[in-house]
Amino acid sequence: MLRDQAHCPFKGWAVHRAGLSETETPLSRFPTAAQRGSLFHYVVAEILAGARTQAQLERLNEDTLLAADESKTLPARFLRHERVRLMRWINEWLTFQVQRREPFEVLEEEKEVELEIKRLKFRGYIDRIDRTDSMERIIIDHKTGPNYLTKNWDPELMSDPQMPMYATAVEACDGLAYLSIYRTSDGLKCRWQGIGTSTQPEVSDGLDGSIGNFASLTELKDAWRKRLTEIVTDHLDGKADVEPVQDDVCRFCHLSNLCRVYEDPTLNYVGGDEE
Q1: Fewest CB within 10 angstroms: 25, 35, 83, 151, which?
Q2: What does the pLDDT read at residue 251?
């Protein structure tokens, strides 16, 4: 609900009050991007359950990685091809982890967190919380795609409330970051996108004004909580205005024929299929 309401009050109302959820697309012979992302997350979680430090990750061999893969059965129709593809992604991710500048330890993986706002409880699962040698704690979320940016955490233009919710629910954190892996014309690439008080490369963006002028992470977390409370209040009050928080959130929304956002000359509607 938080994400839909943050994207646009009308979408939050339509999906979670009127029940106008997006119809699932017919099953394909091939795995969807979401299925591939879920499988990557599962295998990474299996690896981190047994290798919790940088040194332990460095000692992993191909047999260990394959065992993590085997622990979740892939559909037979794409078993062989997907295993090869998945192992390329896992090896790239593992190399990126081993090359991190400062040693680290994975304190928790798949950590369940709960945040209560206006008597509504929201539950989520943090991919991992790392602690560096300098005792800094960093919330990390794995993403399989390039379009996950810290600018979407800006309290004024928040289109992705997931990480702000995590940071608000976990008091002891010095930073938060996306660890994205995706394909480019030059092959696979891993990248950090994060913010915080830590000096680590995971949060190299720092508190530099890129998502607001905040003097500390504590101040930013207070702004996040305030914005999350506003989003929940709007939902409880039944706010259903067509007010997309950013132009591009309408691009893949299934409600454009109902809200007719593209007919409003005051909105810079971005429509069409992704190229």
Answers
A1: 25
A2: 86
How far is the C-alpha of 8 from the C-alpha of 252, rounded, in Å?
A: 13
pLDDT at 272 over 60: no
Say yes or no: 12 and 50 in one domain: no
Task: Let me know if residue 188 belongs to a domain.
Answer: yes
Residue 5's domain comprises: 1-17+240-265
Identify whether residues 230 and 250 lie together within a single domain: no
The pLDDT value given to residue 275? 36
The encoded tokens of residue 186 equal 């030059």
pLDDT in tens, 16-35: 999 999 887 656 666 778 88
Q: Is 110 part of any domain?
A: yes
Do residue 260 and residue 192 come from a single domain?
A: no
Number of separate domains in the chain: 2
The answer on 244 and 190 residing in a single domain is no
SS (H, E, C) the chain: CHHHHHHCHHHHHHHHCCCCCCCCCCCCCCCCHHHHHHHHHHHHHHHHHHCCEHHHHHCCCHHHHHHHHHCCCCCHHHHHHHHHHHHHHHHHHHHHHHCCCCCEEEEEEEEEEEEEECCEEEEEEEEEEEEECCCCEEEEEEECCCCCCHHHHCHHHCCCCHHHHHHHHCCCCCEEEEEEEEEECCEEEEEEEEEECCCCHHHCCCCCCECECCCCHHHHHHHHHHHHHHHHHHHHCCCCCCCCCCHHHHCCCCCHHHHCHHHCCCCCCCCCCCC
Q: What is the pTM of this model?
A: 0.88
User: Same domain, yes or no, for 125 and 149?
Assistant: yes
Do 137 and 68 fall within a single domain? yes
